[in-house]
Amino acid sequence: MNEKELLVPVAVEELAALEAMAMLGNFKTMDFEAVTAEIDKRAEEVEGDLKGLINFMALVYAIFEMNKNGKKETAQRFSGEIAVKAPEIAPLAAELLDELEESWRKNK
Questions:
Q1: How far apart are CA 23 and CA 75, in angstroms?
Q2: Residues 55 and 44: beta-carbon distance below 8 Å
Q3: Is residue 40 within 8 Å of residue 78, measured between CB atoms?
Q4: Residue 98's pLDDT is what?
Q5: Residue 93: predicted pLDDT
Q6: Most buried residue, 17, 49, 61, 63, by most Cβ within 10 Å?
Q7: What totals of helices (H) and strands (E) does the chain contain, helices first?
Q8: The model's pTM
Q9: Alpha carbon of 21 to those of 1, 62, 65, 106: distances in Å?
Q10: What is the model's pLDDT at position 100?
C-alpha cells in the first residue's frame, strides 16, 4: 500500500454485497474480479478467516437476490450445496437469509 492510497472503512456486509453482485453479473465496464481479489487480499491481511466470512455472506446475498429475481430454482440449488458441503454453516445461512428478507420487507 502506498502513502497516497485513501482507505475507507467498509462493513463486511457491504463487501459481501459487492461480492454477490460480482457473482451475478457479467460486466463489460468494471472488473469485479480484480476488485474482489483485492478485497480478499486485504481481508486476509486484517484477519485470516475474514475472507471466508465475506465470501460466505456474498453467497447468501446472491441466493437472496436470486430468490427476489425469480431464479428460485438456482437459489435452491445453491442453498442445497451449502447444506451438503458445509452443513455446519447452513443454519447461519438460513438465519442471514431470514434477516435479509425481514429487512427487505421493511424497506420495500
A1: 13
A2: no
A3: no
A4: 94
A5: 93
A6: 63
A7: 5, 0
A8: 0.71
A9: 26, 7, 9, 22
A10: 92
Residue 11, C-alpha cell as written in the block: 462493513
In whole angstroms, what is the distance from residue 52 CA to residue 97 CA? Answer: 17
Give me the sign of the Cα torsion angle 68, 98, 108, 17.
negative
Grid cell of 8 as nine digits: 475507507
Residue written as grid cell 459481501: 16
- Are the C-beta atoms of residues 54 and 12 closer than 8 Å to each other? yes
The type of residue at 38 is: E
Instruction: List the pLDDT tens digit at each of the 108 positions of the chain.
Output: 455 665 667 788 888 878 777 777 766 666 777 777 888 888 888 887 888 888 888 889 999 999 999 999 999 999 998 999 889 999 999 999 999 999 999 988
Distances (CA, A) of 67 to 17, 28, 74: 15, 25, 8
